[in-house]
Amino acid sequence: MQLDRFGLQYEIIEASGRHGGRVYTYHFETPETPNFHNYYDVGAMRFPRTKIMDAVFKLFGELDLDKDGKIIKYIMNAPGNIQLFNDKYLTFTYTKPNGEVLMGVEALLADAYDPFKEKLVENFEKGWEYLMEYDNHSARTYLGQVKGYPFSVIAWMETMDSSTLSYDLAFSETVIDSLDFDYPSGPNNPSGTVMEWACVDGGTQVVTDRMAEKINIKPLFNCRVTAIAMDDPTSHNPGMKISVQGHPEYEGKRYSHVIATAPLSCMRAMDLDQAGLDYAQNQALRCLGYGAAIKVGIKFKTRWWEKTSTPTMLGGVSSTDRPSRIVVYPSYGFDDPQDANGVLMASYCWTQDALRLGSLIKGKGTEEEKILLDIIYKDLAEIHGQEPQWYKDQTVDYHAHDWYHDQYSIGGKHPVAYASFGPGQFSNLYTELTKPAAKGNLHFAGEATSTHHAWIVGALESVDRAIYEVFVKEQRDDLIEEHAKNWEEGEVEQGYQAALQCLRGILGLYS
Ligand SMILES: Cc1cc2nc3c(=O)[nH]c(=O)nc-3n(C[C@H](O)[C@H](O)[C@H](O)COP(=O)(O)OP(=O)(O)OC[C@H]3O[C@@H](n4cnc5c(N)ncnc54)[C@H](O)[C@@H]3O)c2cc1C
Fold it and tell me: Where is each Amine oxidase domain found (predicted)?
């Protein structure tokens, strides 16, 4: 859409047979009731209404999703949601005057993260510089060595707040994640009320379907890029060429620029020997960390969680330290329960929790997936109170997806859930990919090359940067100016930093 706006010629070359990538809504094929809300979002599913997410909501507006009533409220927490830890149901809460409900861990987290978050909200670029001073810390070492919390307290915080071993990731990653999930009072939350979240009625894939409809030049599917190279490495404007598996017509075709949006693991599988990457860029492609994620959707005969629990659960999540970790109740389908299908996200896991359950995701009907379902039924029983067999008897169908070992949806067929950097990676490696390669003709984009990992906004912002790089290299001041009008403020790569990074790339400068 951005490229159409500038009247540029482009091709979108996609390895898989569908558009959307990690925006993927799974629709069950077995409706017993009308085929309505018969899906769950296997990838992106929720969007906080904060300043950081402006670009996403702007996109929703451009696609008329708001106007058509497709953007509905996502319920992050609801009365009746359960917290089951150490076999005990946690019931103690503290309600702030603005209605926000806090529990013990949240207070400790706010104490550790809020000073950074407030600086980032005030001025993202300056806040980022401050955060980078602590980038060599993992969340665990920061909480232990800087805040002085004992091991057991940190382990308790990690268990309640996040996923197993996630505190070994960069402290900076954890702070940004916390900012994305829990934006302190600021421009978009002026009244200090609890942050509002949104989701897309019909699933997030409605967004990418509409994007695909709207763009002038449609993607070319089943075209896996296997190599990217400079066309004339001796020239200061070398041009680019690519190879596409099974499509000899691409050999010899010249492009002025390539914007590479494939996940870094997929990029690594391409032949980039002649692509003009420097050592640090190759190292960044190899080393920058990705996390794992799995989701299991179960379609039940009824929406029992809205009927049998007291109070009834209308949206929100329940969490536990048992293997399934998080249960997500649909935020839609309340108005007409006769019609709404009983699709529940029975487990959503990250990091080590995802790797463990993910090892059981081997395809429908396999022995491993029977074990997976038994684990989930047992957890549902412990959380909600019936016998495991009851949930099994209620099941109409299920779908399990392991993003890290994804073979089907991500055309590149390589481990990808979302970027999750380790200590020091933001300050030492990330900046190698926010500058172009090939003398300014090859650009890296996609969520991993943004500061907002695991969010669509990260992908959008990285593309804004990549387009800016193209215009700088082409010395199109008119388009740079035009582009600036649509570029959301606040990103660290914007402005002076973007200009600097772009020049570093064009001139081939190392850090
Ligand atoms: C489980 C999960 C939950 C999430 N939840 C949320 C959420 O609630 N809210 C939110 O905003 N975001 C969420 N996200 C993150 C969001 O989905 C991603 O950040 C975003 O979709 C990434 O977009 P991208 O364009 O960078 O990458 P992708 O969407 O992965 O697109 C990359 C594309 O490159 C293609 N490709 C790979 N290799 C090649 C090749 N060799 N040649 C050609 N094409 C290739 C792939 O097939 C793919 O289509 C979630 C992600 C996951 C996995």
Answer: 2-462
Region of 323 (left: φ > 0; alpha: ψ -120 to 50; beta: rest) is alpha
The SS3 call for residue 336 is: coil
Rounded to whole angstroms, how far apart are CA atoms 186 and 188?
A: 6
Q: What is the pLDDT of residue 101?
A: 59
For 251, 328, 434, 447, the CA distances from 278, given in Å and listed in that order, are 24, 43, 13, 21
Ligand 1 atom, smallest distance to 417 CA: 53
Task: State pLDDT tens for residues 223-241.
Answer: 999 999 999 999 999 999 9
Q: Which atom, in ligand 1's list, is nearest to the CA of 412?
A: 38
Supply 305's token pair: 């969680």
Which of these, 103, 169, 164, 109, lies nearest to 325 by C-alpha position? 164
Among 289, 317, 257, smallest CA distance to 75 is for 317
pLDDT of 186 reads 47
Q: Which atom of ligand 1 is nearest to the CA of 409?
A: 47
Query: Tokens 């680019």 identify what position?
Result: 240
Euclidean distance between the first and final Cα of the chain, in Å?
Answer: 33
Helix (H) or strand (E) holding 48: strand 47-48
Q: Which of 49-63, 97-111, 117-131 has the lowest mean pLDDT?
A: 97-111
Query: In angstroms, rounded to a whole number, what is the distance separating the alpha carbons of residues 143 and 160?
Result: 15
Long-range contacts formed by 149-156: CB under 8 A, 24+ apart: 149/108, 153/108, 156/105
Q: Which comes out higher in pLDDT, residue 263 or 489?
A: 263
- Rounded to the nearest angstrom, the gap between the alpha carbon of residue 289 and the centroid of all alpha carbons in its chain is 14
CA-based angle 323:329:331, to the nearest 5?
150
pLDDT number for residue 185: 55
Ligand 1 is surrounded, with C-beta below 6 A, by 13-16, 21-23, 43-47, 224-225, 261-263, 266, 270, 293, 295, 403, 410-412, 417-418, 446-447, 454-456, 458-459
Amino acid letter, residue 150: P
Asked if residues 27 and 209 have their Cβ atoms less than 8 Å apart, the reply is no
- Closest among 504, 480, 474 to 239, alpha carbons compared: 474
Mean pLDDT in residue range 169-197: 75
Domains annotated for the chain, with CATH where assigned, are 2-16+219-290+414-507 (3.50.50.60), 25-78+198-205+293-402 (3.90.660.10), 101-192 (1.10.405)
Query: How many whole angstroms from 22 Cα to the centroid of ligand 1?
Result: 3
Q: Evaluate whether 338 touches 37 at the Cβ level (below 8 Å).
A: no
Instruction: Give the torsion sign (CA, 306, 83, 195, 330).
Output: negative
Residue with the nearest Cα to atom 27 of ligand 1?
446
What count of Cα atoms within 13 Å lies in the side-chain half-sphere of residue 377? 18
